[in-house]
Write a structure and sequence with these properties.
The protein is α/β, with parallel strands linked by helices. It folds into two domains: 141 residues, NAD(P)-binding Rossmann-like Domain (Rossmann fold, 3-Layer(aba) Sandwich), CATH 3.40.50.720; 134 residues, 6-phosphogluconate dehydrogenase C-terminal like domain (6-phosphogluconate dehydrogenase C-terminal fold). 63% of the residues lie in helices and 9% in strands. It comes from Sutterella wadsworthensis HGA0223. GO terms for molecular function: NAD+ binding; prephenate dehydrogenase (NAD+) activity; prephenate dehydrogenase (NADP+) activity. This is Prephenate/arogenate dehydrogenase domain-containing protein. Keywords: Oxidoreductase.
Length: 374
């Protein structure tokens, strides 16, 4: 068997769960087959083989925690995912099933059978939109086995944890996956854990999350929500406001992209990424906590003296304020510069390889005759 054939067969057999990466590798293999045809450049094949090797490496890294987990996970009572047909619910469904946990789904149309679906459950995960979370938790009143662990995966924690403690007399845990439903694997991701009641009962679930390769970070629900005001609400608001302002300026984005530095292009892509997603999700994140309004107001009001400094064209004051912020970041500033530089280099390399592939693929085919015609 050829090296490429072995690669394809082994990734399909060993890491069948990583569908997206398998698709990418499959596309590369098709391109590789075309590149092997007479008259095509050897450089094209080299570029494609490099991409296959890197994507196969990602497959192995993502699959290692799950492969190890499959041999160690004990038998568990069923997991019921309330909202299992949503993006995060589907991710959790696949992950639990891969690890041998029986999974049941409770969706909107299933509430007449909710008592039967929840019967004998060991873990119940509420995975619904933020604005529906508390009402769905309250709908579980009287339906949960006493020993079942009740948890949620919402990006707000204080309200849902309080509601779960009120509704359920058994174990309670607040969870917040710090990633979206489009990740290929939980490996390397972060789950925030906000303890509710009976931390020992939550440990098997937390251990399973660690076996998936994720990191569990523990903090109180209140501390979580304060931090998310900065990490999510303020960040999403500033991105939203920048996008709104940019749309009012109405520049030709194709021209902006042609003139952009790598870092600005990446920043613009992050703005575009926000507006490619569900506006209801971001509205709920920003509006979920009244403290977010105070935080955002403070940020907007803080811009006035910065604008006054610019209007006064006070270069010395700009440098003084810049240096104060540099001191605040300390050693993190140069560390962040190095890390972001590595990210930009990876992105630039991938873009260059894509451009090379397209240019070589579109090049006119040679007839194989290199002799000159007189």
């Amino acid at each position: 068997m050829t090296t490429v054939g072995l690669l394809e067969g082994s990734t399909e057999a060993l890491y069948d769960n990583e569908a997206e990466l398998r698709r990418l590798i499959g596309e590369r293999l098709i391109l590789l087959g075309a590149a092997a045809e007479p008259g095509q450049s050897e450089a094209l094949a080299d570029i494609i083989l490099g991409r296959i090797a890197r994507e196969a490496g990602r497959l192995v890294k993502a699959a290692e925690p799950e492969a190890a987990d499959s041999a160690k996970t004990p038998q568990h009572k069923p997991v019921v995912i309330v909202g299992g047909a949503g993006g995060m619910g589907r991710q959790l469904h696949r992950a639990f099933e891969r690890s041998g946990w029986p999974v049941r789904i409770l969706e909107q149309g299933d509430w007449p059978q909710a008592a039967e679906i929840l019967k004998g459950a060991g873990t119940v995960v509420v995975s619904v939109p933020i604005d529906k979370t508390i009402s769905v938790i309250e709908a579980l009143t009287g339906l949960l086995p006493r020993e079942a662990l009740l948890c949620d995966v919402t990006s707000v924690k204080a309200g849902p944890v309080e509601a779960m403690m009120r509704v359920h007399r058994g174990p309670v845990a607040g969870l917040h996956p710090m990633f979206g439903p489009d990740v290929a694997s939980f490996a390397g991701q972060v789950f925030v854990y906000a303890p509710g009641r009976d931390a020992a009962a939550a440990e098997p679930l937390l251990e399973q999350i660690r076996r998936w390769g994720a990191k569990v970070v523990t903090c109180s629900a209140e501390e979580h929500d304060r931090s998310m005001g900065i990490i999510q609400a303020l960040r999403h608001f500033t991105t939203f406001a920048y996008g709104v302002f940019l749309s009012k300026l109405n520049p030709d984005l194709s021209v902006i992209l042609q003139l952009s530095s790598p870092i600005y292009r990446l920043e613009l892509e992050m703005v575009g990424r926000l507006f490619a997603q569900d506006p209801r999700l971001y509205a709920d994140i920003i509006l979920a906590n009244p403290r977010n309004t105070q935080l955002i107001r403070g940020y907007v009001e803080s811009l006035a003296p910065e604008l006054a400094m610019i209007e006064a064209r006070d270069r010395d004051e700009f440098i003084r304020r810049f240096e104060r912020v540099r001191l605040y970041f300390g050693d993190l500033a140069p560390a962040f510069m190095k890390e972001s530089g590595r990210m930009l280099n990876l992105i630039q390399t991938e873009r260059a390889e894509r451009a090379d592939v397209m240019s070589l693929k579109d090049a006119p085919e040679s007839d194989g005759n290199t002799s000159s015609q007189v």
